[in-house]
Amino acid sequence: MGENKKIKNTRKKIVFWKNLSCLSFFIFSLVLIFSSILVYNHFFNNSLKSSEGKTALNTEKKKEKCPDCLPRLLDGKLVKSGQENLYPLAIIIDNHTEARPSFGLSQASLVYETEAEGQITRFLAFFDSGEKIKKIGPVRSARPYFLDWARGLSALLVHCGGSPSALARLAQNDLINLNEFYYSNYFWRSSNKKSPHNIFTSSTKINQYLKNRGLEERKILPWKFKEKNSGKAPKVKHKKININFHNQDYNVSWKYRENSGSYLRFLGEKKHLDGGKKEIRAHNLIIQYTDFEILDEKLRLNIKTLGRGEAIICQDGICRKGFWKKDSPRTRTRYYYKNGEEVKFNSGTTWIEVMRNSYKNDNIFTTN
Questions:
Q1: Are residues 145 and 285 in the same domain?
Q2: Which residue segment(s) compose the domain that 306 sits in?
């Protein structure tokens, strides 16, 4: 009996120590797990802070890469000193359905879009001569209203012929222009397109013309540009803007993208890509209303460019009513809000949609 009792006690002790060992191992495991979590969080947070610090540092480094940069007069973009006031190029670009896709539009600093004849639109695209653009066009003929807009920026007008009134004005005024009819060596004709939608040029060819003419710098009066806004972004009100030229093949829309702070262009329902397969975007969008008058049986137009008229100014997802003003062909068109305050533009590309006064009642805004 005594031995049995000892055996029982021994067994109890063994069970007790086994249980104690299991409990100790369980507690140790818990401590190890929690310690691992704490260590992981410590290193993860430090890594995240380090990553954020590196991002901020990289941002600062990017700013420091060009400490002497200045806003470019044409579009407000920061460029190296000495590059801020290069000769602007104003190139008339085709938008006929048989001419598409157009080349170079994604790299333009400023674009006017309006009707040529028969509710077919055409572009007057402004480029800084310092940009490298391999292919621009198709280049088309001049109209008097294009001359007024180009002259306001003292730009070189690049075109292929023109209406009788446009050519007469070019012969009479001091607007420097490059006409393919007389200087074909600065252009080429593509075999992939039918005439007259097959004329192209490049920044290299146009810069060679500027060099041959001794044209290096042209003083322009810039618009006002915003400083980078570090405050809270305004609430987006107008996500989509419809531009209805009353011709299904030429109606466009612009959709605001908050992540980039820019408007993405759509031609019909499809994203509008230029010939380089690049998206066409704008950081400022203006709808400029004015008087249109049909001049002849070929439906050539007289478009009022001087004086004052209504405008809608769209930036950062918000559109506001205002007006445009241009005092003479030599002065630049300027834009104002209804209270008379001059518009400050975002740096980057601006598109100006010039439309008939009779289109003012069109519903241009949608919120989707």
A1: yes
A2: 66-368
